[in-house]
Amino acid sequence: MSKQYLFGLIILAAVALSSCYKEPDFSISPVIEFYTINSEVRLDQATGGVKDSVVVTIKFQDGDGDLGVNTEETTEYQKKYGYNFNVKMMREKNGKFEEVVNEVSLSGFFPVLSTDKPGPLEGKLSYRMPAFFHDFWIKKDKVKFLITIKDRAGNESNQVETDTIILNNL
Question: What percent of the chain has pLDDT over 70?
């Protein structure tokens, strides 16, 4: 009888504790925060050229968890909303940062982050940008990036600014 009583008490405690968990109340539009930016010099295997590889990591929160796009959905999503990870590059010139318009977009797609039931989602997201080949950049070029993301419904996040990094720092 005491084993049954103890088992019942454990079940009751588990139910009571699980009912105490309250889901976070996040906005249905994503909210992001800059976390880190890393740049490393790499050798391009195809061309033998030297390039900078840049990875930005952001923290995110989303109320309904509809972040990311499946590979099969990218064409249709892009027609409707554009990219879901949007990047604007800013270059320092004469002490001020100005937007750089690249022929190759730095924006792109990140995959679906949760396949579970819809609900609040938070975490960190890292995004690797296309390579910055040294032949096309001024030595010790100071740049930073402005980042936004969009969810599957097209809701756009706030914009965050990265720290400044130096490209072509050899």
Answer: 83
pTM score of the predicted model: 0.81
| Domain assignment present for 115 | yes
Structural tokens at position 52: 């900078």
* 12's tokens: 């009751």
Supply φ then ψ for residue 142, to 5 degrees.
-90, 125
Residue 60 placed within a domain: yes
Tens digit of each residue's pLDDT (9 = 90 or more) over 76-86: 999 999 999 99
Q: What burial letters (b/e) apply to 85-109, b meaning 16+ CB within 10 Å? A: bbbbbbbeeeeebeeeeeeeebbeb
Question: Residue 109: CB partners within 8 Å, gap ≥ 6?
Answer: 68, 69, 74, 77, 83, 84, 85
User: Is the pLDDT confidence value at 12 over 80?
Assistant: no
Residue 114 lies in a domain: yes
Please choose, from the candidates 165, 169, 149, the residue with its C-alpha nearest in 3D space to the C-alpha of residue 30: 149
CA distance 86 to 148: 5
104's tokens = 């190759």
Query: For position 19, what pLDDT does the model report?
Result: 52
